[in-house]
Amino acid sequence: MQIQEEIVHYPTLKTILAIEDVVKKANTPVSRNQILARLPTGVMRSTLNVALGYMEKRGLILETRKGFIWTFNPSKKLEKAEEEGLQV
Hints:
Elements: H1 13-25, H2 32-38, H3 45-57, E1 61-63, E2 68-70, H4 76-84
Antiparallel strand pairs: 1-2
Helix pairs in contact: 1-3
């Protein structure tokens, strides 16, 4: 039997981008507490957990025993195609 957690507050795009920036700039894995401490504004822990879960599902980050690391590596070919592509 799976217990469903009720999400009290969903993160805003601004919050997700701030969390992304913290994890991206970290040279070593960062824990939840370290992320909360490095964020420019206060974020509820439950909101942080929702954002981290979202980012992990999308393949942007990976949770290790030591913390979260940035894993997203965009394709240079795709980036070049987007720059040179015809916009309709």
